[in-house]
Design the sequence.
């Protein structure tokens, strides 16, 4: 039963990892920006939701608020940080440092304005009940899965079926070609940042409800997203989502055999092994060297 | 006051060595490692163990620290040979996270979270060098030695080979450069120097634990190199001075309330990183019309 | 390059000199708390406590010369501790520094010892802190003493099977050892000890492991308040209904206020907020009016930490002895026993305090004393 229980909590963690990682992968694939401030987006969305809920807003409004804040921050980073750097042909590491600096600013602004402890929303949805002997599952488990699957389907449909979506996928392969067809790569990159950032919202809200969220929580989110994006094959949305799910499950299942403090390291061992032995990731094409 | 400035100067020198050593990887070989704190830590633990169990000799401890870090740098060289760019960043990230867990769990070697306490005062070939002035002199000596050797190496055929790889790996290969060997050696040199810096750090603090060798430290080091100017000799030093001394200078501003001082420091610090990257993407030390 | 450094140095020197001139003849007391990062909640709390004590000392005119507070951010890291301590000892010339956190303490202790600065620890409770330096004073009972206090209570309540979730640092290890040795003596068992890294935030999987060993009580040993509140919430959410027990970290306001903490037991120094003893009453009422919140024992420790300074310095001023770290320590070791808020505190030969430990329970968002 222990295994089943660990699997369940692994899936719950994993779907949210997957969704956030897919957002990261979408942004990276379309714009080649290593968006380290993705974690800051996550934290901002979580705080927006909690503050909204504490102010007495009904929960759909709080969710909307979180969505607006996340997208707003993503677009802001794109327009005022990444684009100016890319105009100078900055190396991708320059982007990395700038984004890291921005994450620090967000973290400390939240500390300054809201406070330093963790904040959370209390809801009966996170209370687990026994559905099988020894297997405890909370309603939030089903919500996480439902929301993640629905949103993921929506985004893939958008990318497959609409012109803008197809163009977005094309952007990573050949930006010159798109420009020749009269599509604005600036608008497309804004679109990628908007959608990608929006994909952090469910994870942020559910984290605020299950474990609480703190100003420094973004670092972990970025690490997981980055790892999942690489294991899944950089730029592959499906790969990132699946890898995120796998990372969540590994992190939890490993506890059945190893001491608990190794659970996070296990995920990164998987990452390291993947890069050494299968650098193209789960679904990626051959690595460009 | 003097002691405080000496302490800061010594720390700045140690971080100068670290940034310069990371610059060998990032600036000259194009290997973007975010695991440099791992080798800093390996050197610190190895040096501290030598000092605690054998002799507190800086030279011997630094050799041990540098050697062990150099050997373990193979863990970094291996992915560096196989992948580039973002993939390598992710690999080094994985290594960094693993190393933090190992540092916290290998109690007999690292003391776990409790760390290694009571590292004895340093001596050099039988002479006591533990006083702040003398230890600063030792560190400045180490920094000078590192910078000179890096300058000489990078001017020679080895450096040209490395930079050829950085700019285009396939072109370098076509020119008959031994890419794997060059890369492995560059990683080994950079990591050994980081190990030496780690040993000096252990002597300076007399106490080390895993909290000094985390991902944040790695990112800070990387920021020092990039902000100062990757691929330039003095850039990493400029970056080190700026990032290490900025919080110290900020703490002299009298009107920030005591409870907010840390937050304000971090805020300014993050803002400086972002703004510098927007307006000086090639780094402070680079000529304003940078190559990159 | 050199120019830049000398410029910075001389700038800093002028500033410091100007400050020293402006404030001659005051007692300099330093604080070295984490003011940024994930432990900043503690730093704020401690600083508030010190400021409240300063208000009271000034109001009572206890000292002839005023106390001047200097704050440094330790970031809860050894390096931050070493830099901050050097700064306080050699630039600000503090004779007395209040600090916390094990890593910070260990890095700061040799520096403080060398510069003859009395260091007061009121937050770190690792047992290895007792013998760091003669100048290192523990005003908080170390954690192993807290386990000794909770064992009889567990036996009395019939909670025989205990599961422990701990962060693998000297604090967690000592609690683990105390339980492994102490529980069997009273017929109990430590049914599981699960160590977690200090950065862990997800405890769903640990909850499954804990449920698997069927404990009567779960003991949390983490030095990080945020982590404790996440543990309590996620274990409750995952259907762990057993008794929660922890040490003095359970006394943080954010934890006491959290609904999932209802019923949680924690040990800590005897600090009865409802007591009529005038000193504690003044502290509690002062805290409530100044910060509009309930006080916690950690805050009391640092309040007492500065009060202790005032008492020591008062004694020295009366005797006409200059107030330095050296004389303060000598005075402390001469008097040994002090009437601080919350009761009498006695320091042993390592300058570690012992005071009575009480057991409290979280009830309705407040803590109440139960033994």
Sequence:
């Amino acid at each position: 039963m222990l295994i089943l229980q660990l699997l369940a909590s692994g899936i719950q963690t994993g779907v949210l990892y997957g969704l956030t990682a897919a957002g990261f992968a979408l942004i990276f694939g379309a714009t080649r920006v290593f968006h380290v401030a993705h974690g800051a987006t996550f934290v901002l969305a979580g705080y927006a939701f909690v503050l909204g809920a504490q102010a007495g807003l009904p929960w759909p409004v709080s969710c909307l608020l979180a969505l607006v804040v996340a997208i707003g921050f993503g677009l802001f980073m794109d327009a005022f940080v990444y684009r100016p750097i890319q105009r100078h042909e900055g190396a991708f590491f320059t982007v990395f440092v700038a984004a890291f600096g921005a994450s620090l600013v967000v973290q400390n602004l939240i500390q300054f304005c809201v406070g330093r402890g963790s904040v959370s929303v209390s809801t009966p949805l996170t209370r687990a009940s026994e559905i099988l002997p020894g297997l405890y599952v909370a309603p939030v488990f089903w919500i996480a899965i439902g929301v993640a699957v629905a949103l993921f389907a929506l985004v893939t449909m958008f990318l497959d079926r609409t012109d803008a979506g197809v163009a977005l996928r094309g952007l990573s392969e050949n930006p010159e070609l798109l420009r020749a067809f009269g599509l604005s790569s600036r608008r497309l990159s804004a679109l990628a940042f908007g959608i990608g950032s929006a994909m952090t919202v469910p994870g942020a809200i559910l984290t605020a409800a299950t474990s609480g969220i703190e100003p420094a929580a973004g670092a972990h989110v970025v690490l997981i997203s980055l790892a999942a994006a690489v294991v899944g094959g950089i730029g592959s949305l499906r790969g990132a989502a699946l890898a995120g799910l796998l990372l969540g499950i590994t992190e939890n299942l490993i506890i059945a055999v190893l001491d608990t403090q190794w659970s996070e390291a296990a995920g990164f061992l998987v990452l390291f092994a993947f890069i050494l032995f299968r650098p193209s990731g789960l679904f990626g094409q051959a690595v460009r060297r | 006051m003097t002691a405080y400035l000496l302490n800061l100067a010594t720390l700045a020198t140690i971080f100068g060595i670290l940034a310069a050593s990371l610059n060998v990887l990032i600036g000259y070989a194009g290997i973007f490692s975010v695991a440099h704190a791992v080798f800093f830590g390996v050197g610190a633990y190895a040096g501290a163990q030598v000092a605690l169990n054998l002799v507190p000799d800086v030279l011997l401890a630094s050799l041990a620290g540098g050697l062990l870090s150099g050997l373990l740098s193979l863990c970094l060289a291996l992915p560096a040979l196989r992948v580039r760019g973002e993939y390598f960043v992710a690999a080094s990230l994985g290594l960094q996270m693993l190393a933090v867990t190992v540092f916290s769990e290998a109690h007999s070697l690292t003391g776990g979270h409790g760390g290694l306490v009571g590292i004895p005062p340093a001596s050099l070939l039988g002479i006591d060098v533990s006083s702040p002035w003398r230890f600063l002199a030792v560190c400045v000596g180490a920094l000078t030695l590192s910078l000179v050797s890096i300058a000489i190496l990078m001017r020679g055929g080895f450096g040209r080979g490395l930079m050829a790889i950085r700019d285009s790996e396939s072109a370098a290969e076509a020119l008959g450069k031994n890419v794997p060997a060059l890369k492995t050696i560059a990683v080994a040199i950079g990591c050994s120097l980081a190990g030496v810096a780690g040993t000096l750090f252990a002597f300076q603090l007399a106490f080390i634990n895993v909290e000094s060798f985390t991902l944040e430290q790695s990112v800070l080091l990387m920021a020092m190199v990039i902000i100062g100017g990757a691929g330039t000799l003095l850039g990493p030093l400029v970056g080190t001075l700026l990032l290490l001394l900025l919080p110290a200078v900020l703490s002299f501003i009298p009107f920030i309330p005591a409870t907010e001082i840390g937050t304000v420091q971090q805020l300014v610090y993050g803002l400086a990183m972002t703004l510098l990257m927007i307006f000086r993407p090639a780094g402070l030390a680079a000529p304003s019309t940078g190559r990159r | 390059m050199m120019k830049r450094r000398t410029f910075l140095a001389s700038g800093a020197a002028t500033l410091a000199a100007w400050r020293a001139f402006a404030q001659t003849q005051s007692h300099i007391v330093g604080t070295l708390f984490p003011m940024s990062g994930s432990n900043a909640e503690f730093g704020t709390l401690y600083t508030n406590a010190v400021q409240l004590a300063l208000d009271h000392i000034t109001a009572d005119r206890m000292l002839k010369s005023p106390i001047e507070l200097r704050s440094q951010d330790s970031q809860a890291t050894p390096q931050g501790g070493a830099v901050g301590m050097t700064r306080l000892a050699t630039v600000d010339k503090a004779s007395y520094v209040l600090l916390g956190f094990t890593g910070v303490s260990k890095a700061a202790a040799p520096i403080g010892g060398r510069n003859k600065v009395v260091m007061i620890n009121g937050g770190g409770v690792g047992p290895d802190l007792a013998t760091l330096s003669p100048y290192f004073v523990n005003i908080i009972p170390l954690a192993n003493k807290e386990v000794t206090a909770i064992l009889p209570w567990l036996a009395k309540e019939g909670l025989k099977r205990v599961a422990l979730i701990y962060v693998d640092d000297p604090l967690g290890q000592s609690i683990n050892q105390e339980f492994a040795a102490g529980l069997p003596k009273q017929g109990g068992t430590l049914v599981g000890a699960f160590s977690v890294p200090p950065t862990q935030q997800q405890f769903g999987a640990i909850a499954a492991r804990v449920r698997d060993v069927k404990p009567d009580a779960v003991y949390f040993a983490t030095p990080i308040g945020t982590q404790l509140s996440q543990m309590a919430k996620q274990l409750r959410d995952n259907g762990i209904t057993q008794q929660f027990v922890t040490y003095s970290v359970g006394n943080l306001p954010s934890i006491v206020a959290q609904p999932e903490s209802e019923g949680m037991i924690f040990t800590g120094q005897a600090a009865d907020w409802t007591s009529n003893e005038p000193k504690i009453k003044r502290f509690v009422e002062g805290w409530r009016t100044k910060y509009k919140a309930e006080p916690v024992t950690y805050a009391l420790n640092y309040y007492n930490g500065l009060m202790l300074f005032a008492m020591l310095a008062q004694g020295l001023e009366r005797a006409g002895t200059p107030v330095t770290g050296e004389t303060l320590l000598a005075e402390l070791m001469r008097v040994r026993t002090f009437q601080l808020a919350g009761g009498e505190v006695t320091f042993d030969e390592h300058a570690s305090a012992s005071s009575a430990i009480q057991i409290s329970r979280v009830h309705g968002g407040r803590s109440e004393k139960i033994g």
Notes: The CA atoms of residues 21 and 52 of chain A lie 25 Å apart. The longest helix of chain A spans residues 2-31.
